[in-house]
Amino acid sequence: MSTTKGGRRHHVNGRTNGKTAAAPVATLDPEPVVLPAPAATGDAGAPAAPAEAVGETASGVTAVTEGLAPTTAPAAPATPTTVATGELPDGTTGEGTTEGEGTGTLPEEKTPGTHAPQSERIRRYLVRSDDQLYGLASAPEPVATLLAAYRITPERVAGVRGQYDATQLTVSNRREAMAHEATAVRDLQRAYLVADAGYGAFRQVVRTIYPDPVRDLDAHRALGLDLPAPKSIPLFVDMGREAMRAAQSEPYATQLAAVGFDEEGIAGTLALFDAVDALYQARLAAGHAAVEATKVRNAAVDGLRVAMRQLQAEVKAMLRAHPEVSAPSGF
Predict the structure, then answer these.
(1) Which domains does the chain have, with CATH numbers?
(2) What is the per-residue pLDDT across 299-331, written as a single tens digit (0 to 9) for each?
(3) pLDDT at 104
(4) CB neighbour list of residue 195: distance below 8 Å, 6 or more residues apart
(5) Residues 267-294: pLDDT tens digits?
(6) Is residue 89 predicted with pLDDT exceeding 70?
(7) Which residue has the higher pLDDT, 26 or 115?
């Protein structure tokens, strides 16, 4: 604010008679800051779980679990799912617990069902090809006559349509092969777990008879009691079979029968290894069939691409020469 008096200008807001007035300094006593108490949860320092948890199953279907309030219990650690092939993961003995018997971890493998069974790029290409073939087959006059002049006859379109149908069949065959491979993997998983449990029980029983690895060195070597389970399903089967066959010979057969592990029990455990071996071979065959089905599908798609590319080039040439007509549907 300013006023004029006697020809001189006096500033009364911050400046008086040309001099700057000092601003008053306010002194405030600081107040103590009170922090809010942390919310009680099941895990100190961990955030509350969201009210809605969304997961995805191996088949690609999204599962949603809704809750009315956040959970206060700590979440259990997620257990990774592995599948059985010929290799066991690092640190796995094949024998399970701290004692090392009977709860083996599944061998690792790339799960065939974790990805889409068919390429989305291929599916989109087949949809577009179907639309274009329909447009050529149903083209009205005068487009139909012009197409025939450019060698796009109904017979040729029908031939490419048959090629398209054959390609779709290879896609279906590959999907079935992938499903069979996934089934073979699951069957091998189950058989491996059963055989591992049976083999672990056998080793526990045998160690009660031959507890001293020095005094009972011959038994430990013959029955493989000190050998870790190999990280390969074929080697796991071979080692188990060798141990079972050694257990069928004397003096081990008599001593094992005295503690309840008789000839029938040994034969039953040996049959578990035979089942794993058979399912392992079936899994290899299913994997090979899936690979071959993929090769056949890819070759069929490549052949269809060539035929469709030729049709597309001739349609473009016709449209450049006759701009007065509309393009067939799909183009």
Answers:
(1) 120-321 (1.10.287)
(2) 999 999 999 999 999 999 999 999 999 999 999
(3) 52
(4) 236, 237, 240, 269, 272, 273, 275, 276
(5) 999 999 999 999 999 999 999 999 999 9
(6) no
(7) 115
Contact 133, 139 (CB under 8 A): no
DSSP bridge partners of 66: 52
Task: Provide the residue count of the chain.
Answer: 331
pLDDT of residue 107: 54
Which CB contacts under 8 angstroms, 24+ apart, belong to 44-49? 46/74, 48/72, 49/75
Report the predicted TM-score, pTM, of the whole model to 2 decimal places: 0.58
Query: Torsions phi, psi of 6, nearest 5?
Result: 60, 30
E strands in 223-299: none
199 CB contacts (<8 Å, ≥6 apart)?
Answer: 94, 95, 102, 229, 240, 243, 269, 272, 273
Element (DSSP H or E) covering residue 53: strand 52-56
Distance CA 184, CA 280 (A): 8
- 3 state SS of 66: strand
Could you tell me if 111 and 81 are in contact, meaning their C-beta atoms sit under 8 angstroms apart?
yes
Residue 234: its pLDDT value, please?
A: 93
* Residues facing residue 8 across a β-bridge: 5
